[in-house]
């Protein structure tokens, strides 16, 4: 199986964290395939070193430096830079078959059986199920296919501005031609789907093998309290993720990825995302209350990182107000409207 590989892409240090956790999750579930990380030029050296510890191959993709068709294409369509970087996975021709997984996915089980599928196999997109979601897909590296993809992309652009639009236009018969190329949804379960069809999640969610943290808020944008093992984030964010998957991500990150990062970053400071205990010299009066609603901005060596603490619980909120918030997409997924509470409510109806 040395000629088959899982492939991911990290364009910066944040996405590198995702790639590190993804790689570890695949290793934890004892994959027999190689692991390849494509990285962009902005990934810093310590992050590259950590990726090399986890991945068999870390390959720099600098489209501006490639001197190939992609470079020429990019001069005409500079907006498609990241898309071209991802399409670069087709040039990994020392592998006969690969499974691409976004850096914002997490393997919950061994998924080596995906290599039984053919190009291009992928799961439906929850927003438009006649399109596939390009977060997880099976492909065959080929310079010929790569060239055609770049050409098509340059001529027609991307209907959604990203790689998913390009790939769906290129593999345009995916929806109808061969059902074997439809991966079951459990290989690319997006958090959005959990809330849009909760009874289905209740029925099938336990079989999930890959979770995809779709949306603007990524796991690494939250912060983590190692002591209480809780993830903190903005509960107003519509894409707030299923807390238990988010916890699994942070569990791998804090237990195995972070120690590796500390080793390789050495004295060079970096943002861990872990809430450090307050210095004893600071008096509590100078701190906002534990559940202050305001944004706390922390400056780490010139880079600003925004922590958004959980707003206070509102036991007094009326059910009408709550319904209104829910309908505006402002469900309190981490609190009142957490999956546990929803499940309890559903159970009370079903019993
Ligand atoms: Mn993604």
TrEMBL record:
Biological process annotations from GO: glycogen biosynthetic process
Catalytic activity: L-tyrosyl-[glycogenin] + UDP-alpha-D-glucose = alpha-D-glucosyl-L-tyrosyl-[glycogenin] + UDP + H(+); [1,4-alpha-D-glucosyl](n)-L-tyrosyl-[glycogenin] + UDP-alpha-D-glucose = [1,4-alpha-D-glucosyl](n+1)-L-tyrosyl-[glycogenin] + UDP + H(+)
Subcellular compartments: Cytoplasm; Nucleus
Annotated protein name in UniProt: glycogenin glucosyltransferase
Keywords attached to this entry: Cytoplasm, Glycogen biosynthesis, Glycoprotein, Manganese, Metal-binding, Nucleus, Phosphoprotein, Transferase
Domain of life the protein comes from: Eukaryota
Gene Ontology CC annotations of this record: cytoplasm; nucleus
Biased composition regions of type Basic and acidic residues, renumbered to the chain: 275-293
Pfam family, one: Glyco_transf_8
């Amino acid at each position: 199986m040395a000629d088959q590989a899982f492939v991911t892409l990290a364009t910066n240090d944040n996405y590198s964290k995702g790639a590190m956790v993804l790689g570890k999750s695949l290793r934890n579930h004892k994959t027999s395939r190689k692991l390849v990380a494509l990285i962009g030029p902005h990934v810093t050296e310590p992050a590259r070193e950590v990726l090399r510890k986890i991945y068999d191959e870390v390959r720099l993709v600098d489209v501006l430096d490639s001197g190939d068709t992609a470079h020429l294409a990019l001069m005409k369509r500079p907006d498609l830079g990241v898309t071209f970087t991802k399409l670069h996975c087709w040039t990994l021709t020392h592998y006969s078959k690969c499974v691409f997984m976004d850096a914002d996915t997490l393997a919950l089980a061994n998924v080596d059986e995906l290599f039984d599928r053919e190009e291009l196999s992928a799961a439906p997109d929850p927003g438009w199920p006649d399109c596939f979601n390009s977060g997880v897909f099976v492909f065959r590296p080929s310079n010929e296919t790569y060239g055609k993809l770049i050409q098509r992309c340059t001529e027609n652009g991307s209907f959604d501005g990203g790689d998913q639009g390009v790939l769906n236009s290129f593999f345009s018969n995916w929806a109808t031609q061969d059902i074997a190329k439809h991966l079951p949804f459990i290989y690319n379960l997006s958090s959005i789907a959990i809330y849009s069809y909760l009874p289905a999640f209740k029925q099938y969610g336990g079989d999930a093998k890959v979770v995809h943290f779709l949306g603007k808020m990524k796991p690494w944008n939250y912060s983590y309290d190692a002591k209480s093992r809780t993830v903190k984030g903005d509960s107003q964010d519509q894409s707030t993720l299923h807390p238990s998957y988010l916890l699994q991500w942070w569990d791998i990150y804090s237990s195995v990825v972070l120690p590796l990062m500390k080793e390789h970053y050495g004295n060079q400071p970096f943002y861990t995302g872990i809430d450090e205990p307050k210095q004893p010299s600071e008096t509590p009066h100078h701190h906002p209350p534990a559940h202050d609603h305001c944004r706390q901005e922390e400056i780490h060596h010139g880079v600003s990182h925004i922590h958004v603490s959980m707003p206070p619980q509102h036991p007094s909120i009326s059910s009408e107000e709550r319904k209104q918030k829910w309908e505006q997409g402002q469900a309190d997924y981490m609190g009142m409207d957490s999956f546990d509470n929803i499940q309890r409510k559903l159970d009370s109806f079903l019993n």
